[in-house]
Design brief:
Blueprint lengths: L2 H26 L5 H17 L13 H4 L9 E5 L3 E6 L4 E11 L8 H7 L8 E3 L2 E2 L4 E9 L11 E12 L4 E14 L2 E10 L4 E10 L8 E8 L16 E6 L3 E4 L14 E2 L3 E6 L2 E7 L9 E9 L2 E9 L8 E12 L2 H7 L13 H18 L2 H15 L1 H28 L3 H15 L8 H19 L23 H16 L6 H9 L1
Helix pairs in contact: 6-7, 6-10, 8-9, 8-10
Length: 529
């Protein structure tokens, strides 16, 4: 256990560090992570082995691929809003073409505020509300729905706007009476009439979308309702260049749980589960999400067929097809779903659908990150400020890990005590490395010293603090949250670089207070702490 072993271990640590940096660089450039590729490929192989691409028994040209095509228009908007959302629902298909989040503002560019803005001579731009759904020459993001299985109204049919009504209801989630705003649209194709309504209650980012189908023909019909999210593959406007976050579709079922599908992976052959009795679809970006899910508490299980499609260059769709009951001539049937468009608030999402809170994705650190987030949320409930909640959380994590850190410090201290004897052994045996290593091993055994005892505690702490980092990165609650004096937004860098300067000063002071160890292994471990 001499210098050769120590040198080898240092090279291993250095190689592992370089590999981690390379892996993060791959992820930043949109390529799959080494740590996730194997699991994803195995899952895809298992799914492909047991699931052929599902087909809906419909007339040619009316399946998932057919409903996903067509030009997206936004020329006849109808406005629907509550205290959180402003929606545009276009009469062309009764499609949601714009969703503005009234209480969520864009983040300021760090180069335009604080010290950087002063040095560069920039002035902050006016911060507008976050807009998720939108149709512009550079960006397309909409929520579509309609009927398939025959000559039925779909998202390319011109609907007629029948008006907007308001009513009162007792809200179980909020525990109070709320106002419900309902916009109603109607269209008829092939003697089949669809009345589509959007019910948006105050205090909610989720709305109930209802399709009421009337069969005016003389034959029985078997329609299905499709729910679809369509988006280009670009990154959200204003996304930070300091870190990588996932943007793209996701599908959830009870069987295969949470599945992310990158835009680049969308092709002819699905790499996700195709059929299930439950589940939801979503489009995820940093802090925000849109999703179609079943209505909470729905008693009857419904057959879902999930699909992804590349509609055109840089235009993609993810959707689900839900079968309805057969409708006799002059009969009626209805189907309901929830459309959520808003921030990734885990409590709200978990209430809407099982597993929907998983869109706040912590990757392989989820097992650690979930309890950390729960503790952070609990601390915020006590102190009422996210900044101080983070401080308390850090103190608690450090206190929990103190025994591990103390063990590392003790090991380093014992190594420091025997350093003079190690030097004496080195001088005694000179270039005879074999005898020197034997003598060193005997010394370690006699003094009961683990030469890597200072490094192992650090390795145990790394996953915990990585999980803490991802929790802080993914928590939408930190957006726009004030802390102290100059820190007005915990989701953006310190505008005056005061906290980084304080951290650098304390690290420099710590280095000065700790004498430099002579043993290379001890030197490496002490620098890590």
């Amino acid at each position: 256990m001499g210098s050769d072993f120590q040198r080898t271990l240092l090279w291993v640590v250095l190689a592992a560090t370089c590999f981690m940096l390379w892996d993060n660089w791959q992820v930043y450039n949109g390529k799959p992570s080494f740590f996730q590729t194997t699991a994803v490929e195995q899952t895809a192989q298992q799914q492909n082995a047991k699931n052929e691409p599902a087909q809906v028994n419909e007339p040619a040209g009316s399946g998932a691929a057919a409903v996903a095509t067509g030009m997206i228009q936004a020329d006849h908007p109808v406005k629907l809003e509550n205290d959180l959302l402003k929606l545009n629902i276009d009469e062309q298909g009764a499609v949601v073409t714009r969703a503005e989040l009234i209480k969520e503002r864009q983040e300021a560019d760090w180069t335009e505020v604080g010290l950087a803005g002063m040095i560069l001579g920039k002035t902050p731009k006016e911060l507008k509300n976050i807009v998720l759904f939108n149709v512009t020459p550079k960006h397309v993001y909409v929520a579509q729905s309609g009927l398939i299985g025959g000559n039925f109204p779909n998202h390319k049919t011109r609907f007629k706007y029948l008006g907007t009504t308001q009513s009162k209801k007792q809200d179980a989630e909020l525990g109070r009476e709320v106002t419900v705003h309902t916009a109603v649209f109607e269209a008829t194709e092939g003697m089949v009439t669809v009345r589509k309504s959007y019910e948006l209650a105050d205090g909610h980012y989720g709305m109930t979308v209802r399709h009421e189908v009337t069969n005016g023909s003389s034959a029985e019909i078997s329609p299905s309702v499709y729910y679809q999210l369509t988006r280009d593959g670009g990154k959200p406007e204003g996304e930070s260049s300091f870190y990588y976050t996932y943007t793209g579709p996701a599908i959830y079922t009870d069987e295969d749980k949470f599945q992310k599908i990158k835009f680049d992976d969308i092709g002819d052959k699905p790499n996700h589960q195709v059929k299930a009795d439950n589940g939801w679809i979503a489009l995820i970006q940093h802090y925000f999400v849109s999703a179609w899910a079943d209505v909470r508490g729905q008693k009857q299980a419904r057959q879902h067929e999930f699909y992804t499609n590349k509609l055109a260059d840089d235009l993609y769709a993810v959707g689900s097809i839900v079968r309805m009951d057969k409708i006799q001539p002059q009969g009626k049937a209805a189907s309901e779903a929830v459309l959520y468009v808003g921030p990734q608030n885990q409590q709200r999402l978990a209430y809407i659908a099982e597993g929907l809170d998983l869109v706040v994705d912590y990757g392989w650190l989820t097992m650690l990150a979930k309890p950390i987030y729960s503790l952070l949320n609990f601390l915020h409930g006590i102190c009422g400020n996210w900044g101080w909640a983070i401080v308390l959380l850090t103190c608690i994590v450090k206190a929990i890990l103190y025994p591990v850190s103390a063990a590392g410090y003790k090991s380093m201290a014992r190594m420091k005590e025997v350093t003079p004897r190690m030097k004496a052994l080195q001088e005694q045996y000179g270039n005879d490395k074999q005898r020197y290593q034997q003598a060193l091993m005997e010394l370690y055994k006699k003094e009961k010293i683990n030469p890597v005892g200072g490094c192992l505690p650090i390795a145990l702490q790394i996953p915990v603090f990585l999980a803490l980092y991802w929790v802080l990165l993914a928590s939408v609650e930190l957006r726009g949250s004030e802390w102290i004096l100059w820190v007005q937004d915990l989701a953006t860098p310190d505008p005056w670089f005061i906290l980084p300067a304080v951290m650098m000063a304390t690290m420099f002071l710590q280095m000065k207070l700790n004498p430099t160890p002579t043993d290379p292994m001890q030197r490496f471990c002490s620098s890590g702490t």
